[in-house]
Amino acid sequence: MSQVLRHVPGIIDPNVLIDAASRDDAAVYRIAPDRALVVTVDFFTPIVDDAATWGRIAAANALSDVYAMGGRPLFALNLVGWPRGTLSMDLLGEVLAGAQSVAKEAGCLILGGHSIDDPEPKFGMVVVGEVHPDRMLTNSGAKPGDILVLTKPLGTGILATGLKRGLISEAEMAEAVAQMTTLNRGAAEAAVAHGAVTATDVTGFGLMGHLSNIVNGSGVGARIDVSRLNFLAGATELVIQGVVPGGTTRNLETVPVEWSDDITRFERILASDAQTSGGLLIAIPHDRARDLIEALRAGPAPSARTVGIITRERGVIRAERGSALPDA
Description:
Layout: H1 2-5, E1 16-18, E2 27-32, E3 35-44, H2 51-68, E4 72-82, H3 89-106, E5 109-117, E6 122-131, E7 147-150, H4 156-164, H5 174-180, H6 185-193, E8 198-201, H7 206-218, E9 221-225, H8 235-240, H9 246-254, E10 258-259, H10 265-271, E11 280-284, H11 286-297, E12 305-311, E13 317-320
Parallel strand pairs: 4-5, 9-13, 10-13
Antiparallel strand pairs: 1-2, 2-3, 3-6, 4-6, 7-11, 7-12, 8-11, 9-12
Helix pairs in contact: 2-3
């Protein structure tokens, strides 16, 4: 991705608050002193067999980028690639209905979209939201001593690959589906309410990759306590069987992490797993971390836990076992 971003022209405009250069989750453009638009796009091929469920996951995943910026979705446009000669349009209707149900939950209108004939089905959304310029969540505000909070378990990429290979059933995928279709709205609102200024959603680059964006954007380092990471049921067993998505392997190979010798290869894979519609990774001042955790667990993110701390070692991510942190 860094090689691609090198070819994106630089933008110089006082109203552009966030663009691709910072590797944040969405672009942000100021339209008034107290209002800015948050714009994002995301789409992918099916990761589950049920069409409506795929639509729900894709919608939650696209909306998540707006929440990760501290914003509120306003409206969306559907993006569809569909093999009309081999898959029925009724099946596409199920995908769109699933997406509509999640967008309705988010209070986000779907105003249209665009479709093309494509040999491989693809679905996603362009989402437009808004945020107050002074209350954004970005990659660039983390400070040494901030506590890292993760709001959802890891392992969706591994489980989805296991499903594609016929190694697990739809029933065994149910917990992952529930996580992927849960909006990050409440978690983002709690983060902003408790004074966080830095967050990202954990998706294709995995926990370590998205943490790397925060570390580089903020000019800091980070320490992750692998023993505090929460993995979805069955993910560890699949990794032991050799189920590792290609994106996860790339993350493990390309994201610079100093792994402690006692961290197993299986744990390294799980910590690098490429997620779909993952949780938020939030950096919060130490004295506010416990209150944030309590607020998250009380409703929007019952699986939330502290997983690490921001350090002064610029650009260095250390993964170890055992850290003195607030309530895990």
